[in-house]
Design goal:
The complex is a heterodimer of chains A (about 525) and B (about 775).
Chain A (H helix, E strand, L loop, with lengths): L1 E5 L2 E5 L5 H7 L23 E4 L4 E4 L10 E3 L3 H16 L8 H5 L6 H9 L3 H11 L3 H7 L3 H5 L2 H4 L5 H13 L16 E5 L3 H12 L3 E5 L8 H4 L8 H14 L2 E3 L9 H7 L2 E4 L13 E2 L2 E2 L13 E3 L10 H19 L23 H5 L18 H8 L14 H8 L24 E3 L9 H8 L7 E3 L6 E3 L14 H7 L5 E3 L6
Parallel strand pairs in A: 1-5, 6-7, 6-9, 7-8, 9-12
Antiparallel strand pairs in A: 1-2, 3-4, 3-5, 10-11, 13-16, 14-15
Helix pairs in contact in A: 4-5, 4-9, 4-16, 5-9, 6-9, 9-16, 10-14, 18-19
Chain B lengths: L2 H12 L6 H12 L4 H10 L4 H8 L13 E6 L2 H5 L2 H11 L14 E6 L11 E3 L2 E3 L4 H19 L13 E6 L2 H5 L2 H15 L3 E6 L11 E5 L5 E3 L7 H8 L11 H9 L2 E2 L40 H6 L4 H9 L2 H11 L11 H10 L6 E6 L8 H8 L1 H15 L3 E6 L4 H16 L15 E6 L9 H8 L23 E5 H13 L1 H5 L9 E8 L5 E6 L4 H8 L9 E6 L5 E4 L9 H6 L8 E6 L4 H15 L5 H4 L1 H13 L5 H17 L3 H5 L2 H9 L1 H8 L14 E3 L8 H5 L25 H5 L5 E3 L1
Parallel strand pairs in B: 1-2, 5-6, 10-11, 10-13, 11-12, 14-18
Antiparallel strand pairs in B: 1-3, 3-4, 5-7, 7-8, 8-9, 14-15, 16-17, 16-18, 19-20
Helix pairs in contact in B: 1-2, 1-3, 6-7, 10-11, 13-17, 13-20, 14-15, 16-18, 17-20, 24-26, 24-29, 26-27, 27-29
Classes of the chains: A alpha/beta (about 525), B alpha/beta (about 775).
Chain lengths: ~525, ~775
């Protein structure tokens, strides 16, 4: 046994153990990407670096043997900066999107590709649930949304964008036609109540998400019926008000309390504050104001992502802070404010909705289009008349046009998770000219995207260990080194025995199982 | 023989195990000029070598080609000395001349393939080009055409019957006189006549052959003497009155049995000759500009003892001059622990760069109880701008072998390896021959010299990977793997070749051993400084009058080397800096030229001993370009494993490329320093840790040049994107520039001042080089 220090504490370990092993036995977590248990050590990613203060050296903890003289720090400033820099360097050579561009362009950040895949698979209920993770009024939006997602859709570079908006509408309409439409799970009441002023899309959405978190929501409106601009500004031929009523009905059923024809006057905030824990203002574009709240022209001034106003505990959303009556933006604000309110009331740092680190690479070049098309079906965009939705066949055909631009490993990718944890900036070292992206489907059931590879060699070691006939190997060296199949034989599968193992252990989305698509 | 049979033969010769992979690939490539996929697949079928291994290895080493190449290979050297003499322009001119299409390096007819090579180790002849086995030195833009013409001419000459003045029977040898256009212009015709006269006067039976241009036109006329059955000797700048003496040195009239050595030897010795010229093929690789003895002052020959005086392969001569005396002494009188103590006391440090105490390393191996132990001579000299190992291996093979046997005796090693760069075929041939002769004389093999001690040495030819100079990568390479370094500890002395304890010593280190034993520790310690003992061999090249291989005591100053030994900077230019230590080293500015050369002092000024490349830079050299040059080298030679080295060096190069093309910003400079810092701290092996040195040292001493580039100006006019060529009123209208311009950017206007069309100009420097009036200016 030897003793050495980690983070000032004396740790005991068996001689020959690595720093990482000794640390993890002592309950100290060190991040690692290229490290795989029971494999020869091949330190390359350098995320596991720790600082040996005794020698003022950075060491890869996954492969450095612990020694008695060591004085290791696993999270000091030097180490954090080293990890961040290593991640930024890896990201500069990592060409891929975590989330698809449609999702990142959606104000509500809805997981569109996943919805599409579920629709293709005929799992309409599941698709709807994905939609309702982020959007409170999908049937409404499915009719009136300007669909910024479709402007970002990569399929536009091929022919025309996927009809995302109408696909969402299909899922929502299908749900509303069921005897008991979907209702999200609701946490136990937490005893706190929120006043929401305005029952437009912003306020309805805020209530929808706050109720799920256990808050009591009371919505005030000067008008006789809830819906705000959706009801009073959108003509019936664009939005059948029955649909609006149905979706409001769900929120009401969830527990929202509506106090209609009750205008909140400009001096009424202190009174509300005495009764409610927080106030959310969703009064739409209006000249009206509240005493003590600053406005610039017709908009309340709020902090960007949190929607906090100048008064603590008061939030403002929707067209009340940004004119234009974009329903999807209002719905997004409602969701974001729900996060802010929750953080505010739990004495957390108010940050709004946390969007995880997201790698993105910009437009597809013409050479890359075939790589992406391989994941979708051919066929023109299917258009439906405005008030009439897709037939099931149309829906499936259209959803299958989606090219799977999001990463298959976006939820488990270590590069992404650590980039998030260490605050890495994707573009810091990103070159002016990026590498062209490829998607290789030859080695079933695996999809290989070389431009996402961080050259850790875990897969190379796996195929060698299990004696694949062809296997994978490093080809070339230096910056241009790549993992590839020797001789690149089209007729032979390089991963006969180890496909799943390689995909599972690949720390990024470079190797992934194709069949895991429906999550 | 069909491919199948040929491969069977290759496999039979090299073995079927994994470790045979590199030798097998080398054999296949020398047969086909590249590695055909079919052949590689067959190897996988017939041996234990797997597809992932063979492709991994074949694609790792620069030497191997995976696509077909032309009939002849043109290699443009891009070593440091060649780079500062603008080899890049030479490469571009070849590319234009051969009409290469973008993305292809072979011409349409499949005749020539154009490649860049890291360093041919002929730095004093820079820029150097190798076409097949023919070396051309001092190749400028015009030289490209000379070289190609001469190469073509030589192919024809090979088929022609040579001019013979003697009888085939009892032939004493051959004399070759250069009769290329520049040779004739410089008087080689007269030299030829003198040879004929001399031959008939002395009744010699000699074949006289006239040959085309050698490409070294600054040294003409050239004369090469190849006595039958002996190594050839090469003479430059020969005058007709020297001919008689040269001939007498090499040939004696029939019936005249006494050796004429004395006075005639001295006379011939004064000429600029090259004793090591190996004339097996015409224009061998082993060409050097000057005889080393012309600048002996200030040098201390330990490694290079008897230079220019001994025949490298003459074992008897070696023995006559103390050869194998040290070994005998060790075997008979010095027990191994005492011997190690001796080496420790001598203060000898590894000459490969890091300067680890040699004796301590030996002790580690000796103390390891392993039954099988290896000793490896590291001759993988990959630094561009360095050619010490090559010269030592070629010129003093027995000295290194003896040093190695002594090391084996001291440490209990059972088997030895020479790891030699593939770019040094002559060194390989010499060592192979020397090992054979040692075996024949009982210095290698079972029971060495009757001592009961047994040890033998094999050769492993590298395949072109700078990283293999790192000891753990070198070991991986011998094992038949990609040359990827391993984390130390465990050190090779603990767990090395095939997991056995292994000692890796640099060539030069091993060549110092016999001196320490023969002359004693005291004598050795007299040379050098308090902390760094003995001598260091440097390859002196670049902007210096007398370049070459020098051996100097540690502690000598940079100024003494550049000014005294090297004769200063030529052409009225100003001495600006020296680049020491190649890609791991740094640039020491002229104002620090009084820095003594030892491990510590060099480290303090931001350089490194490295393996001993020393390239002198003058005021026309752009320091940002030098930094970019080295970084381009290290980033392409990185093994590609660790993040900081693989990507960090590339991103630093991106920034330097931006700066050199005028797109850099102050933020780039900051980021460059930041990346340099992290690459140093975060890399695992010496290559990555030292890769930022050239950047950091130039930033430290020449920051204003970086800033000038950011402001759109290259102060020395080297960075092509920041300069323009113009013709001033010194122009006499001779039209030479117009005739030479490869892109017709200069209209043909006789007797008028010429004008360069900036739109068309590709900045190839051709016009400036041909202008007789220095009227082409760069700004």
């Amino acid at each position: 046994m030897i003793q050495f220090r980690i983070n000032g504490k004396i740790i005991e370990t068996v001689e020959g153990k690595t720093i990482l092993e000794a640390a993890s036995a002592a309950g100290i977590k060190i991040p690692a990407m290229c490290f795989l248990e029971d494999q020869d050590h091949f330190p390359s990613c350098m995320i596991c670096v720790v600082h040996n203060a005794a020698e003022r050296k950075l060491l890869p903890s996954c492969s450095t043997r612990a020694e008695a003289s060591m004085d290791i720090y696993t999270d000091d400033e030097e180490v954090l900066e080293a990890r961040k820099t290593a991640l930024e360097l890896l990201l500069s050579d990592h060409v891929g999107d975590c989330e698809a561009p449609c999702q990142t362009n959606c104000p509500a950040y809805m997981d569109i590709p996943l919805m599409n895949r579920l629709l293709v698979a005929g799992k309409i209920n599941e698709a709807l649930q994905i939609v309702k993770r982020d959007i409170a009024l999908p049937a409404v939006l499915g009719r009136i949304c300007p669909a910024p997602c479709e402007r970002a859709c990569r399929r536009r570079d091929v022919d025309e964008s996927v009809s995302i908006c109408h696909l969402k509408r299909y899922a929502a309409d299908f749900d509303l036609s069921q005897p008991t439409p979907f209702q999200p799970g609701i946490a136990r009441p937490n005893g706190r109540s929120i006043a929401i002023i305005g029952t437009g899309p912003a306020g309805l959405s805020a209530a929808y998400f706050l109720i799920q978190k256990g808050y009591r929501c009371v919505l005030y409106d000067k008008d006789p019926l809830p819906g705000g601009a959706l009801r009073y500004a959108v003509p019936d031929e664009r939005l059948d008000k029955k649909v609006l009523d149905q979706e409001i009905g769900i929120i009401r059923k969830m527990g929202a309390e509506f106090i209609m024809q009750h205008e909140i006057k400009e001096d009424a905030l202190p009174g509300l504050q005495a009764v409610f824990d927080c106030i959310i203002i969703g009064t739409g574009e209006s000249d009206a104001g509240f005493i003590g709240l600053q406005k610039r022209s017709r908009s309340f001034i709020t902090e960007r992502n949190t929607h906090q106003t100048s008064l603590p505990g008061i939030f403002a959303i929707g067209s009340a802070i940004k004119p234009g009556r974009v329903a999807v933006r209002a719905v997004a604000h409602g969701k974001e404010a729900a996060y802010s309110v929750d953080q505010f009331l739990n004495n957390e740092v108010v940050r709004g909705e946390n969007r995880m680190f997201n790698s993105r690479f910009g437009r597809l070049t013409s050479d890359e289009i075939p790589e992406y098309r391989a994941e979708s079906v051919n066929g023109p965009r299917i258009i439906t008349e405005n008030l009439q939705g897709f037939s099931p066949e149309e829906m499936q055909k259209e959803a299958a046009r989606c090219m799977h631009c999001d990463c298959r490993k976006k939820d488990i990718c270590k590069l992404r998770i650590y980039s998030e944890n260490y605050g890495a900036v994707q573009k810091r070292y990103f070159p002016a000219e990026r590498k062209p992206v490829r998607k290789i489907f030859k080695n079933k059931p695996v999809v290989y995207e070389p431009e996402k590879c961080i050259k850790c060699g875990i897969c190379v070691r796996i195929t060698s260990k299990y004696k694949e006939k062809l296997g994978l190997t490093f080809i070339g060296k230096g910056f241009d080194v790549e993992v590839g199949v020797p001789f690149d034989q089209a007729d032979l599968n390089a991963l006969e025995k180890t496909a799943a193992l390689c995909a599972e252990n690949c720390p990024t989305g470079a190797l992934a199982l194709k069949e895991n698509d429906n999550d | 023989m069909d491919q199948n049979q040929e491969l069977e033969k290759i496999i039979l010769e090299n073995g079927r195990e994994q470790k045979a992979v590199i030798p097998i690939l080398q054999s296949i490539q020398s047969r086909y000029n590249y590695l055909p996929e079919e052949a590689l697949k067959l190897v996988c079928e017939k041996t234990d070598i797997t597809p992932d291994l063979i492709l991994g290895v074949a694609s790792f080493y620069n030497h191997f080609r995976l696509s077909p190449a032309g009939k002849h290979i043109i290699k443009v050297c891009t070593g440091t000395a060649c780079h500062v003499k603008r080899s890049e322009l030479v490469h571009d001119e070849f590319s234009r001349t051969l009409g290469l299409e973008k993305g292809s390096n072979t011409d349409k007819n499949g005749k020539y393939t154009l490649e860049k090579v890291n360093c041919l180790g002929c730095c004093t002849l820079a820029p150097v080009v190798l076409i097949d086995d023919v070396t051309y030195g001092h190749v400028d833009i015009e030289g490209v055409h000379h070289a190609l013409r001469s190469f073509e001419q030589e192919k024809i000459n090979k088929n022609k019957k040579s001019l013979t003045v003697g009888r085939e029977k009892d032939l004493q040898g051959e004399i070759r006189v250069g009769l290329g256009s520049c040779c004739v212009a410089s008087g080689s015709e007269e030299v030829r006549k003198s040879v004929e006269d001399s031959v008939s006067t002395h009744g010699l039976n000699i074949r006289l052959k006239q040959v085309g241009c050698v490409g070294m036109c600054h040294q003409v006329p050239l004369l090469e003497i190849i006595p039958e059955g002996k190594d050839a000797v090469f003479y430059a700048n020969v005058r007709s009155e020297n001919v008689n003496a040269i001939l007498k040195k090499h040939f004696r009239p029939p019936g005249f049995w006494r050796r004429i050595k004395t006075s005639i030897f001295d006379l011939a010795g004064d000429l600029q000759t090259d004793q090591n010229w190996d004339g097996i093929e015409r224009y061998e690789l082993d060409v050097r500009e000057k005889h080393v003895s012309t600048f002996l002052g200030g040098q201390v020959p330990i490694v290079t003892k008897y230079r220019g005086a001994i025949d490298p392969l003459d074992l008897e001569e070696y023995i006559e001059r103390e050869g194998f005396r040290a070994l005998r002494k060790c075997l008979q009188e010095i027990p191994s622990d005492e011997l190690i103590g001796l080496i420790i006391r001598s203060g000898l440090q590894g000459r490969g760069g890091a300067g680890f105490p040699t004796g301590e390393k030996w002790k580690r191996l000796r103390n390891n109880p392993g039954r099988i132990k290896y000793i490896i001579c590291n001759g993988d000299e990959g630094d561009p701008g360095a050619f010490m190992d090559r010269m030592i291996l070629e010129s003093y093979p027995y000295r290194i072998i003896e040093g190695m046997i002594i090391a084996a005796w001291a440490t209990g090693a059972t088997e030895g390896y020479f790891y030699i760069r593939a770019e040094y075929p002559l060194a390989v041939r010499r060592i192979r021959e020397a090992l054979q002769r040692c075996r024949q004389h009982g210095f290698l093999g079972e029971n060495i010299d009757g001592s009961g001690f047994s040890f033998d040495i094999r050769i492993f030819e590298g395949a072109g990977a700078f990283i293999c100079g790192e000891e753990t990568a070198l070991i991986s390479s011998i094992e038949g793997n990609r040359g990827i370094p391993k984390l130390r500890p465990p050190f090779p002395t603990e767990k090395g070749l095939w997991n056995n304890p292994t000692l890796v010593n640099n060539t030069e280190t091993l060549a110092q051993i016999t001196y320490i034993i023969n002359q004693g520790v005291g004598s050795y310690r007299q040379h050098g400084t308090e902390k760094s003992k003995g001598t260091k061999v440097f390859a002196l090249a670049g902007k210096v009058v007398r370049g070459g291989l020098i051996e100097v005591p540690m502690g000598i100053t940079i100024r003494e080397i550049v000014e005294k030994i090297g004769g200063g900077v030529p052409g009225n230019r100003k001495f600006k800096a020296v680049q020491i230590g190649g890609p791991s080293g740094g640039c020491v500015p002229s104002w620090l030229a009084d820095t003594p050369i030892d491990y510590k002092s060099l480290y303090e000024v931001g350089a490194m001993m490295g393996s001993g490349g020393l390239v002198v830079l003058d005021d026309t050299d752009c320091m940002v370009d030098i930094a970019r040059y080295f970084l381009a080298f290290t980033q392409s030679e990185s093994c590609g494993k660790c993040t900081f080295c693989r990507i960090g060096t590339r991103r630093m190069l991106d920034i330097l490329n931006r700066i050199c093309t005028g797109k850099g910003t102050n933020k780039d400079l900051e980021e460059l320093e930041n990346l340099a810092d992290w690459t140093k701290k975060g890399s695992l092996c010496g290559l990555g840790k030292s890769a930022p040195n050239p950047v950091l040292s130039t930033l430290r001493y020449f920051r204003e040049e970086y800033e000038a580039h950011i402001h759109g100006k290259c102060p020395t006019g080297k960075c092509r994107d920041l300069i323009r060529y113009t013709i001033d009123d010194h122009c006499i209208g001779c039209t030479k520039c117009a005739q030479n311009c490869p892109v017709d950017a200069i209209p043909f206007t006789p007797y008028e001042i010429h004008v360069i069309d900036q739109e068309k100009c590709i900045k190839c420097d051709g016009c400036r080089q041909v202008c007789p009036e220095n009227a082409v200016t760069v700004n």
